[in-house]
Amino acid sequence: MAKKVVKYKKQLAHKRTKRTLSFERRRQLEGLSFMVPWLLGFLIFILIPLALSIKISFYSPTLNDLYRGKYVGLANYKEVIKNPSFGQAVFEAFMNSLYQVPLVVGFALFVAVLLKQEFPGRVIFRVIFFIPVILSGVVMSYLFSEDVGSVSVFSQLVQSNTGFMSRLFGGALTTHIGNIMWSSSVEILIFLAALQSVPDILYEVVELDGANAWERFWHITLPYISPFVILNCIYALVDSFVDARNPVMSILYGLMVQGTKYGVASALSWFYMLLSLITILIFILLTRRWLR
Amino acid sequence: MSAYIQKFSNYMYDLYKRYENLGYRVKKKVRFIIGRIFLYYVLIEMAFLFILPFVYILSTSMLTFEDYLDPTVFYVPTEIEWGNFSKAWEALDYPRSFLNTVITSFGAAILQTLACSFAGFALGRYKFRLRNIFFVLVVIVLLIPPQTTIIATYGLFVELGLINTYFSVLLPAAFGLGIRGALFILIYMYFFQRIPDAMDDAARIDGAGPLRLFVEVMLPQVKSAIVIVFIFSVVWHWNDNYEAPTFMYRENVLTLQPRLQNIREYWAKKIPAGESEISKALTEPMLFAGCFLVMFPVLLVYIFGQKKLVAGIERIGIIE
């Protein structure tokens, strides 16, 4: 009898622990099940093509039989590392993003803070700052192209501009500034949405305590939107890494158009992707404590 | 020179003294006005650089050929040439390719907005064992340049029979991938993380299941994220000149972007050979008329969505 009771009690205890565990596990399963569609897509549209492109990077395929070229082992990778122009392009791409990212994010934050205020005409300004995104694609390439019939808009501006800035720094800086401003539209919009999510109550409270606009920005706005600053930094990094005007991307495009060097192109893109991935992971690890 | 500087600084000091002696309210008003002048100055200055190419497109698209070559005509046409637009309309095969682009971009945008919200919700609000790994996977997907996988993807789509159908664009979008799907997941994730946990618990105690919690409690909280993702998705799919033309290259499913790319060749075929250099310049205003036709619908979407964005934003962030 006593034995039975003990056994029963044991069972009960077991059941109870099991139930609490299953509650936790149910939450976990819920989370997982929300991920399932994306994981399926990831498997089909990313993992399989990626695996195929790894395979291509060890072969020397042609367009006709993409998957059955001659096996060449690590020769493609050796070519990538040996070729000095590839290394230089990768270095250049990384240096570009090193100075561009802080400038782009800083500029975007500045504009977003200005645009967040209530003033007549702000809707018009928001539309204007979104124009670069709308013009991307072929339209943009026509605007920036410099062939016989046409001249790039910005260089037109620089040529006609005898103003203070261009006399002081020359045309290159103006073009750089134009580039940076033109690649910050997405960041501006993300910052705007983030700024709107800062509760007004906080501002009212610190205003009663006598904080001026400068202090309000540093003590309320910036800490509150810090995750979005990081998101924007990540986005700006990625954007500069995969930008079509990037030297590495133009080399890749050239290799693909030639049509005989798919293997080298795959190897180079893998090499470049791993480097940029490591950079971004380091960035995420460094900025982890601001995420929450 | 120094006398002038002396005078100027004296004048400024005078102004400052006067400002000092003003009452509190007037001071505040003065500060407000100075702030507004500064604001408008900076914004207009920057907006100039942003709006210049747009104005360039607009004005060039209306120029006649003579005006285009005439250097004295600066942005303002002497007479408006509507022929450019009708030429561009014909070269773009506008109704057909417009419909194709609308189907791919809006369809993909709707699917992406939905599918990415699921993944963003899972990453933003749940703590399960593989969460960090999934997060890293999303970042990796964001980082993969389309150039790396496009050849292999093309081979895959041939196997699946998706080439030259709308599904080659729509299907990846339906799974939350497609053009910059990973970025959208990250945007959703950060927005879902903002929502206080109390909201979650309250809904759970009231007996909401996970789906109901997601649709009725969480999604209304991230309205601004939804609008952002939708607008970006539409615009990027609209302007996609890499993936869509690679997968959909037949005449009847061609989108606007590749047609715009080939707009010169279309008219070069019609103009007799021998005068190629002149005819190229001749097509320049027509080219920008085509640019205008391609980008105008997206501009409308943004202006419309902008209002919704503001309206949607005003409802969130009530409780913290």
Q: Can you describe what's shown?
A:
- The complex is a heterodimer of chains A (292) and B (320).
- Chain A has helices at 2-57, 75-82, 84-116, 122-135, 138-144, 153-160, 164-169, 171-182, 185-196, 200-208, 213-224, 226-241, 247-258, 262-286; strands spanning 59-60, 70-71.
- With 292 residues, chain A is an all-alpha fold.
- Chain A has two domains: 1-46, no CATH class; 58-290, MetI-like (MetI-like fold, Orthogonal Bundle).
- Chain A has a two-stranded antiparallel ribbon with strand order 1-2.
- In chain A, helix 6 runs antiparallel to helix 8 (171-182).
- The longest helix of chain A is centred in the first third of the chain and has 56 residues, at 2-57.
- Chain A starts with a helix and ends in a 6-residue tail after the last helix.
- In chain B, 77% of the residues lie in helices and 0% in strands.
- Chain B has 17 helices and no strands.
- Chain B has helices spanning 2-20, 24-62, 65-69, 83-92, 94-125, 131-143, 146-160, 167-174, 181-194, 197-205, 210-218, 223-238, 243-247, 256-261, 263-270, 276-282, 284-315.
- The longest helix of chain B is centred in the N-terminal third of the chain and has 39 residues, at 24-62.
- Chain B is flat, with a radius of gyration of 27 Å.
- Residues 312-320 of chain B have low confidence and may be disordered.
- Chains A and B meet through helix 1, helix 3, helix 4, helix 5 and helix 6 of A and helix 2, helix 5, helix 6, helix 7 and helix 8 of B.
